[in-house]
Design brief:
single chain, 325 residues, alpha/beta, TIM Barrel, eight-stranded parallel sheet, 8 strands, 47% helix, globular, binds zinc ion, Ado/ade_deaminase, deaminase activity
């Protein structure tokens, strides 16, 4: 099955071996972020954020991001992904300096075009501010996003520690991105409850929510999301790996879908959470009792909700047609 992925952090998709080899080349000691098997090791979400930032510290040049982009697209292609939207963070790409950001973005985009041809994966970028870095840095990130808005950079979002600050603190940045023509998404309803989703929708006016799964704790909110067509970028493997839910059966993806919410499925930071898009779809198949039509619907929801232009969407839609090789 050819797949559409909407919620993937570029650095979070970095294979551990890739990060290790870059650390070795640059003589940077980040050994303690790996376990004995060579996988990323962390205890909880907040420790995960620290490990994530340590791994990202070896990515110091545009060419590192070029290599990373190729590695990530190759990994996505192995799972049958044909279209992917990646979160890009100017915080990590040149420290929010506009000139440096342009160079990083050029390297990522050039590789996305080349590796896209080789792997068959079309990549688009969503510039993302980091919530726990605060609203002032988010404003600088929004300027980077607005400057880059176009065919490749299609959206703006916010990630990081959902318990830091409140959505209203970031409204200025989201307004700026919206005025630049960017589509909007925000992480909410993962570590924050239903109120975090309501606040986010009211103050940031996003059309998609990263996770949003904790809406299930307030069925009136679930009905509002269904009615409004708000799209959830659900990442079950991520939620389970971080202990938000004990297992796939306890995860609300099916309940949200059955109550009419527009559900999509992604991997978030796949090597960190020992998952792949193929794995997510295999597990989803079991959760929906082998109903292929539901998996197809979820995949098409993702294409409908993609931030790319209409021509790109039509081209990808053809790839999903039955019988297309
Ligand atoms: Zn995420």
């Amino acid at each position: 099955m050819k797949k559409i992925e909407l919620h993937l952090h570029l650095e979070g998709a970095a294979p551990p071996a890739f990060i290790r080899s870059l650390a070795k080349e640059k003589h940077i000691d980040i050994g303690k972020i790996f376990d004995e098997a060579g996988n990323y090791a962390f205890d909880d979400f907040w420790h995960f954020l620290k490990v994530y930032e340590a791994a990202t510290s070896v990515l110091t040049r545009p060419e590192d991001y070029a290599r990373l982009t190729r590695a990530v697209l190759e990994q996505s292609a192995e799972s049958g992904v044909v279209y992917s939207e990646c979160f890009l963070s100017p915080d990590f790409c040149g420290g929010r300096d506009l000139g440096a950001w342009r160079e990083y973005l050029h390297a990522i985009r050039e590789t996305a075009d080349d590796a896209g041809r080789d792997t068959g994966v079309t990549l688009r970028g969503i510039v993302t501010c980091i919530r726990h870095f605060g609203p002032a840095k988010a404003r600088e990130t929004a300027r980077c996003a607005a400057e880059a808005a176009g065919e490749f950079i299609t959206g703006f979002g916010i990630a990081g520690d959902e318990t830091a600050g409140k959505p209203a603190d970031f409204a200025w940045s989201f307004d700026m991105a919206r005025e630049a023509g960017l589509r909007l998404t925000a992480h909410a309803g993962e570590w924050g409850g239903p109120q975090s989703i309501r606040d986010c929708l009211r103050d940031l006016r996003v059309e998609r929510l990263g996770h949003g799964v904790r809406a299930i704790e307030d069925l009136a909110l679930v009905d509002e999301l269904a009615e409004a067509g708000t799209v959830l970028e659900v990442c079950p493997g991520s939620n389970i790996a971080l202990g938000l839910y004990p297992d796939w059966r306890a995860h609300p993806v099916r309940a949200l879908y059955e109550r009419g919410v527009t559900v999509t499925v992604s991997t978030d930071d796949p090597p960190f959470f020992h998952t792949t898009m193929q794995n997510e779809f295999d597990r989803l198949h079991a959760v929906f009792d082998g109903d292929d039509a539901v998996l197809d619907r979820i995949n098409r929801n993702a294409l409908d909700a993609a931030f790319c232009d209409a021509d790109t969407k039509a081209r990808i839609a053809k790839l999903l047609e039955p019988g297309h090789v």
